[in-house]
Amino acid sequence: MARTGCTLKEAAGLLDQVVTSEECDRIIKRKSFQKVLWEARHRYFTQLGQSSELKKDTMIGRMINLAEKLESADENDKAAEVWFKVGKALGWVGPENTVTVFGELSQHDLDEIRRKVEDAAKTARPN
After folding, report:
1. CB-CB neighbours of 86 under 10 Å
2. Which of 12, 43, 73, 101 is most buried, taking the most CB atoms under 10 A from its CB?
3. For the CA atoms of the chain, what is the radius of gyration?
4. 45 belongs to a structural domain
5. Is there a domain that residue 20 lies in?
6. Which residues fall within 8 angstroms of residue 68, CB to CB, at 6 or more apart?
7. What does the alpha-carbon distance between residue 62 and residue 3 come to, in Å, rounded to a whole number?
8. Burial class (CB in 10 A: 0-12, 13-18, 19+), 67
9. Is 24 exposed, middle or buried (0-12, 13-18, 19+ CB in 10 A)?
10. Is the Cα torsion angle 120, 121, 123, 124 positive or negative in sign?
11. Residue 71 lies in a domain
12. How much helix, strand and coil, in percent to the nearest 5, is found in the chain?
């Protein structure tokens, strides 16, 4: 259930267990069941995040796949958002392409440069 998102009834069917809808409702409402399901989901997402196969290219490929599915479902506005995010991830859009002239200068460094330029301008001006 944590990996596939199937219902309790579907999971029971996969395990060849016969469970009525009423039993499923009672089980799902139990705090102990909710805790176990939450922990299983947490373990699953941790495994996904720590996978050695998880790479930027994989993420971009999945996003492209999802964008194509959204386009097929005529969800073009949502697909456009995904494509925009793909462009950002690839460095085509956004601050990744912005070149800063100041690099990693601090405010103190900028003030010092300003002072030097102003001093040089004063000495260059005839009075």
Report:
1. 19
2. 12
3. 28
4. yes
5. yes
6. 79
7. 17
8. buried
9. middle
10. positive
11. no
12. 70, 0, 30
pLDDT of residue 24: 93
Which residue do the tokens 């460095």 mark?
Answer: 91
* Residue range(s) defining the domain that contains residue 20: 1-52
Determine the pLDDT at residue 102.
Answer: 67
Tell me if 8 is assigned to some domain: yes
- Residue 82's CB is within 10 A of a number of other CB atoms, namely 19
- pLDDT tens digits for 77-114? 999 999 999 998 888 887 655 666 667 778 888 889 98
The low-confidence residues of the chain, meaning pLDDT below 50, are none
User: pTM for the full model?
Assistant: 0.51
∠ CA 67-68-71, rounded to 5°: 90
